[in-house]
Structure prediction request, 378 residues.
Amino acid sequence: MSEKKKILVGEDSSIIINLTKNVLAFENYSINAARNGKEVLDMLAKEDFDLLLLDITMPQMDGIQCIKEIRSLSEKKKNKIPIIAISGNAGNYTPEEYRKFGFDEFIQKPLNYDLVLATVKKILN
Amino acid sequence: MVKSKLILLADDNSLSKNVLERILEPMASLKICSSLAEVEDFVKVVDFDLILLQLHFSGEKEFTSAKKIKSLSKAECPILAISSSLSLGETHMYLNLGFDALISKPIRPKEVILQIQPYLLGKDAAAHQVFFEELSTAQVISTSQLTQLKKFASISKLKEIYDEFLQECRHLVWERISTFPVAIEEEILREIHSLKGNAGTLGAEKLYTSAKYCESLGRQNKENDFNESLFFLKNAILEFEEYYNKELGLKDE
Prediction:
């Protein structure tokens, strides 16, 4: 049996974290959560993940600053991690701008978990 | 709900003017004008929230031009036409004259209230209209969203998550928006933003719609409108809580 894929969720809402953990665990992924961009960086420094779901609006360090830091890390395995942007502010950036920031995909809140799962699967398979 | 708004009413038919006065009086402060010339004098110096004008004043050769009134006005303001007996071909005439909407005679109080409330809530009429439309069609909890969530999480897990959401809602109502006016600060906008994302994801549609509206007004720094929109948010929260406790039925199967 292949090893479980590891997903890190960077999101400040414990409700979304809780729900997302359940949904992703349902598909047998292993999930960790961080509450802001800084925690995301700390966790990435400690272990490797296969995918990052990153909320844009977070306290201390937002998703945009966080992805800038990740993409400029020296270690290739870490700086190339696929990242899905999650945003509750539809009009802030265009999908093109998200791609320029280095995001692989963009999902808008409110989250539709069928879409979340399909996007995660597309990237991880 | 709507206070401290200023409406200019100009209708030279005393019957409909009296009816409109009685409808509008509890909702806003009124300035009554009896002629077009008087209207023109006032809009140059006073910032009105809404103007209701007779489409055709007796004694005037032409229909009232809302475009002209708007060009003279001190501040941008929606203008509604009051008129009766428009034939089918004339129904769009008021738009060409620069009016934003038409109030048809005979005056029906409920219809008039529904029609002008969105304008009174603020000056960005289009956004308000969209909000009211969205709110009127939104469910307290979307059944399709709930069905989707049930695919991925057990009932007891969902209950735990909705309970946490309810705590977040209660905190906002009792701690953050308990006394008015509420100042627009980053902290409360962040809480509303978080509530919006959670509400939408959990299918609490009315709450999501209200939070989205509050956040948008807050980000635009519209203090009065923001505070008025918080009433809608508060209502949506209370409605959600009642529905959740009585009807959602998240019981273990």
Q: What stands out?
A: The radius of gyration of chain A is 13 Å.
